[in-house]
């Protein structure tokens, strides 16, 4: 059979392989390839012009893959009779190199012939990689035809209609959990005004589409969104740096002190350029809190060894959960470029990390030290190499073991893949990669660090994230401190945990938690009002209106206190209202009760005086019994005001208005009867008058009784349909709960009052018309004045009563009762008392008759 040979014109510069029964491929990203763009005006030179920029820190990814394969091969309980090998190529973060490396993996180890296998060894069973999303997608696209499993330890590629069902597994948890963790941090520290930096690619756009509505719903606004430029050609560097400086100015000018960064692992090396060039800018760096996603690592290109990285001091990042693996430190420390076989990456790493040259590479003049192999990895700064296993390295370690456990399960479950003895050595029939998917989906084991490793139905690692804090020292070394955890399997209140005391903030913050707000937060007592045309995080703080408070920061609106409380002076809390009523203990209640008792005593003295002189002409005139009834009703009017003072109870509420209305109606009825009696008496004295038969006590008593019974009927109806009852008025007064008598039916109350005023108005009218009758026997003039006072008091009562609140409404009514009663008492009875006490000579029939003549 004739075999077509495909010669590789440019063999890979970096590779690391160990040939065994089964091979696991690896796509690393230790170097960054920059090409010179061709204009195709002439035939391109061979090899193409290009340059490599090394990321020394990523060499750990290669070491951990070799270490994990070594551990599996030394484990007699896992894959006995089978040895694992590996082949690792560099993607150079370049599409052409990535596809080239992938095709090399699916070819034989000696020749570049895809789809051709000539032996049972070096059979590719899976591929681990890559570090960034574009590399992973390129590898997945190439492997899709062969259905070879791919275990991704870096960023997840964006899936679209052109890439359905690619067979890869994610060694990082679901990114949605990470987004929720970022939101938790922002809300925990009250950072609502943030800047966002994303890669200018599909992953960056997907991130924005996901977090923008999520953050906005929870009150977080975006001060700016900047896209980090990408470049592939040397000539693009200038434009990239110019764009980077614009981003730098935007970040530093912004009031936002928090930056959320969604980018690839090498992105901070790009920001290292920006930080380096910032020394030439007028805007100097100031403390910002960087919040990075799990893809972001503290890394730098080899030429950035002495560049200032303090701009990242105090950063907070999410990271794939990792633990220390026993034996890894010793394995790393044993690495030496002079005793490591097959590792095509170590020389470039050693050269860039330690700035030395290998003897076989020195041609002429030596500009650097000679690499001795005795250099110590622990002397390297953290941005170049970490002895601690990073999150990405930990994912590679788990990926190797996931493949090993899946292979072990496949061999154990299917006899046709068991070993066949040949010359006392076990040979393995090559299993097709597509059969491994079933076992990978169900893999579940505890690694050597004790962590449980398994995939969910979507091929994502079932795990959480660690929250890390970066501490950058003056000598450019740094320390990473674990300050929190995102654990999707924890209790609801412990899914996100953060230890704020363990955080080291940026240097300009002086160990004080920085603020990141569009405007200072609204204090209690104020509420937010969004500024027109600006994001909702930018607002003005407006004092709460009357009778409303805000007792928390940044409330969108103030709210009312409960009915039992009222706002304090600063409108930031509610104070219990005072329970109040018109009591005998306060000056107003005491004064009114004293006045009531005083006039009651005066009325009683007048009544006693009239009883003593009941046979005198001035008392007998104008119906002696009506006079006594009037005095008694006035006495009761004064005393009934005491029902309005004191704590209202059911009995007093039922009695106060009804008693006042009936007693006052009796008093006004007496005045009306006296007036009508005077008029009829003078009309009866005329010759031939027929009014004589109406003059007498019977008419007066009938007037008093009938007028009073009408009022009694009104009060009875009132008590029947809607009687007064004790109540608490919680709304009329801001700071008081007024215990009062609810009138029940306001209409009935004004009916009682209106009927009483109607009687007074009739009395006033009749008295006014009869005021010119002879004074000796005529009280009409005095009744006119008394009813004028009475009507004036009660006409002014209505508007005053309605404009008054609380216990002062009761005081107004008491005052009106006292004033009108005192007016009647004074106007009608003071002239009579004057004659009885001071001018007894006028209190005889002859004098009265003489005065009449």
Count of structural domains: 4
- Give the count of helical stretches: 20
Major sheet summary line? 8 strands, mixed
The average pLDDT score comes to 82
CATH architecture of the largest domain: Up-down Bundle
Low-confidence stretches: 1-7, 415-428
What portion of residues is helical?
25-40%
Instruction: Please give the order of strands in the largest beta sheet.
Output: 10-9-11-12-13-20-21-22
CATH topology of the largest domain: Rhopdopsin 7-helix transmembrane proteins
The CATH homologous superfamily of the largest domain is termed Rhodopsin 7-helix transmembrane proteins
**Backbone shape:** rod-shaped
CATH class of the largest domain equals Mainly Alpha
Strand content: 15-25%
The number of strands is 31
The CA-CA distance between the termini, in Å, is 166 Å
User: Which structural class fits the helix and strand makeup?
Assistant: alpha/beta
């Amino acid at each position: 059979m004739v075999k077509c040979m495909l010669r590789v014109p440019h063999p890979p510069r970096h590779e690391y392989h160990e040939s065994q029964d089964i091979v696991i491929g690896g796509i690393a990203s230790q170097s960054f390839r920059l090409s010179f763009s061709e204009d195709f005006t002439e035939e391109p030179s061979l090899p193409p012009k290009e340059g490599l920029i090394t990321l020394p820190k990523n060499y750990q990814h290669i070491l951990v893959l070799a270490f994990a394969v070594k551990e599996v091969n030394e484990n007699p309980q896992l894959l006995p009779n089978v040895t694992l090998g590996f082949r690792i190529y560099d993607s150079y973060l370049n599409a052409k190199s990535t596809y080239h490396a992938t095709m090399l993996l699916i070819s034989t180890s000696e020749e570049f012939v895809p789809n051709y296998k000539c032996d049972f060894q070096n059979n590719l069973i899976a591929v681990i990689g890559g570090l960034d999303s574009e590399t992973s997608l390129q590898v997945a696209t190439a492997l899709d035809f062969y259905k070879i499993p791919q275990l991704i330890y870096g960023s997840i590629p964006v899936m679209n209609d052109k890439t359905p069902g690619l067979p890869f597994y994610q060694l990082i948890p679901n990114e949605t959990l990470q987004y929720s963790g970022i939101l938790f941090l922002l809300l925990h520290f009250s950072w609502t005004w943030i800047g966002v930096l994303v890669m200018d690619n599909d992953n960056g756009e997907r991130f924005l589409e996901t977090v923008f509505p999520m953050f906005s719903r929870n009150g977080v606004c975006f001060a700016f969104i900047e896209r980090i430029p990408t470049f592939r050609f040397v000539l693009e560097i200038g434009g990239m740096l110019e764009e980077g400086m614009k981003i730098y100015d935007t970040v530093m000018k912004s009031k936002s002190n928090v930056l959320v960064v969604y980018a690839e692992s090498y992105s901070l090396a790009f920001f290292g350029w920006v930080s380096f060039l910032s020394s030439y800018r007028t805007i100097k760096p100031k403390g910002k809190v960087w919040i990075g996603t799990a893809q972001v690592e503290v890394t730098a290109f080899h030429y950035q060894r002495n560049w200032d990285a303090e701009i990242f001091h105090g950063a907070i990042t999410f990271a794939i959960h990792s633990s220390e693996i026993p034996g890894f430190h010793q394995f790393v420390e044993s690495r030496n470029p002079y005793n490591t076989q097959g590792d095509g990456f170590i020389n470039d790493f050693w050269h860039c990390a330690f700035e030395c040259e290998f003897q076989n590479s020195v041609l002429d003049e030596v500009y650097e030290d000679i690499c001795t192999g005795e250099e110590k990895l622990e002397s390297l700064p953290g941005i170049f190499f970490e002895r601690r296993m990073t999150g990405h390295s930990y994912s590679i370690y788990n990926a190797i073991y996931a493949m090993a456990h899946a292979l072990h399960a496949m061999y154990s479950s299917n006899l046709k893949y068991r070993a066949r003895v040949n010359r006392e050595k076990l040979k393995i029939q090559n299993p097709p990669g597509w059969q491994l998917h079933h076992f990978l989906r169900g893999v579940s084991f505890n690694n050597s660090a004790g962590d449980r490793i398994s995939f969910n139905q979507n091929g994502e690692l079932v795990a959480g994230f660690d929250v890390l804090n970066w501490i950058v020292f003056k000598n450019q070394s740094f320390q990473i401190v674990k300050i929190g955890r995102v654990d999707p399997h924890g209790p609801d209140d412990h899914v996100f945990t953060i230890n704020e005391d363990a955080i080291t903030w940026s240097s300009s913050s002086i160990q004080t938690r920085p603020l990141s707000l569009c405007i200072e937060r609204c204090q209690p007592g104020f509420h937010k009002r969004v500024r027109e045309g600006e994001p909702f995080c930018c607002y003005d703080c407006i004092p709460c209106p009357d009778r409303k408070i805000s007792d928390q920061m940044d409330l969108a609106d103030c709210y009312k206190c409960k009915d039992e409380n009222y706002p304090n002076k600063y409108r930031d809390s509610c104070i219990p209202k005072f329970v109040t009523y018109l009591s005998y203990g306060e000056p107003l209640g005491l004064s009114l009760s004293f006045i009531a008792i005083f006039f009651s005593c005066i009325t009683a003295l007048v009544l006693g005086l009239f009883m003593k002189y009941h046979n005198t002409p001035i008392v007998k005139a104008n119906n002696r019994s009506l006079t006594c009834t009037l005095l008694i009703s006035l006495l009761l009017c004064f005393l009934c005001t005491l029902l309005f003072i004191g704590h209202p109870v059911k009995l007093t509420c039922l009695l106060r208005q009804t008693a006042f209305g009936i007693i006052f109606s009796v008093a006004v009825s007496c005045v009306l009867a006296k007036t009508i009696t005077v008029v009829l008496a003078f009309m009866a004295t005329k010759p031939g008058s027929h009014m004589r038969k109406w003059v007498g006590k019977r008419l007066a008593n009938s007037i008093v009784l009938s007028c009073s019974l009408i009022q009694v009927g009104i009060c009875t109806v009132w008590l029947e349909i809607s009687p007064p009852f004790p109540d608490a008025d919680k709304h009329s007064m801001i700071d008081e709960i007024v215990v009062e008598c609810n009138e029940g039916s306001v209409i009935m109350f004004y009916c009682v009052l209106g009927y009483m005023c109607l009687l007074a108005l009739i009395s006033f009218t009749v008295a006014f018309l009869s005021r010119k009758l002879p004074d000796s026997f005529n009280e009409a003039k005095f009744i006119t004045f008394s009813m004028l006072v009475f009507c004036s008091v009660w006409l002014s009562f209505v508007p005053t009563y309605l404009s008054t609140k609380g216990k002062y409404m009761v005081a107004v009514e008491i005052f009106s009762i006292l004033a009108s009663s005192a007016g009647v008492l004074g106007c009608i009875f003071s002239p009579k008392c004057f004659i009885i006490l001071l001018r007894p000579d006028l209190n005889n029939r002859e004098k009265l008759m003489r005065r009449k003549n």
